Amino acid sequence: MSLHFTSEAVDDQLYTDFTNLSKFPDDSFAQLIAIVFDFLTEPQQSARLLAQLETFANELGVNPVALKNILRSLLTFFKAALRKNLSPTFVKEDVEHLGLAAEKAAHIGSEWKSHLVALSRATLGQTLTVNRLVDMDWRFGVTAASSDAKSVGTTFLQVKFTLDRGTETEDVFMELTLQQFYQFLHEMEKAKTSLDFLS
Asked: Residue 61 and residue 65: Cα distance in Å, rounded?
């Protein structure tokens, strides 16, 4: 059987977790899916997720370890579906193939459809924060002397970017000719326009 969210063989644990998820009462199932989508749209709220899961496990009387396995499988599936940009129909088909009952698969498909824009924004936001530009220094100069007579009198720009790599900052240095600088500036203006359009 071919699944849309992955081209690789699927771990048996994923099938087990989706089959176990199918046994949840409808209201508890909907509550768990809402918790998962809340976390996927606001991934920085991991403390809230853990608190919600603990409350959910206590209310339903579910083993917290089994619930964490189900959550891990759901997150694995949804993140892979996001990477593949799956349609709600493909998401529904895949969760059915993984062992979820048809009506619960339909619920996940409709939730996926209603949250797709927020999920895409959250994913984009996470991607852009990893290499965030923290600071930029620049110096403009003119070559006064060189062993290459053609380069004397040419202008250049030295740029230092300070990037936030997630856990630490890193300085990246560039030296550009005036023509390269204008081309770089043009590309940055295009990127800014794209980001303004998306936000």
From this structure: 12
Give the pLDDT confidence of 88-141 residue by residue, as tens digits.
999 999 999 999 999 999 999 999 999 888 887 877 666 555 677 889 898 988
**Residue 84 near residue 5, CB atoms below 8 Å:** yes
Q: Is the pTM of this model over 0.90?
A: no
**Of 20, 132, 152, nearest to 74 (Cα)?**
20
CA distance 58 to 80: 29
Which H or E run contains 80? helix 64-83
Kindly report the number of other CB atoms within 10 A of residue 190's CB atom: 10
H or E segment to which residue 88 belongs: helix 88-97
> Which residues does residue 132 pair with via DSSP β-bridges, in sequence order?
164
Cα separation, 31 vs 153, in Å, equals 69
Q: What share of the chain is helix, strand, coil (3-state, %, to 5)?
A: 65, 15, 20
d(CA 119, CA 38): 10
- Three-state secondary structure call for residue 144: coil
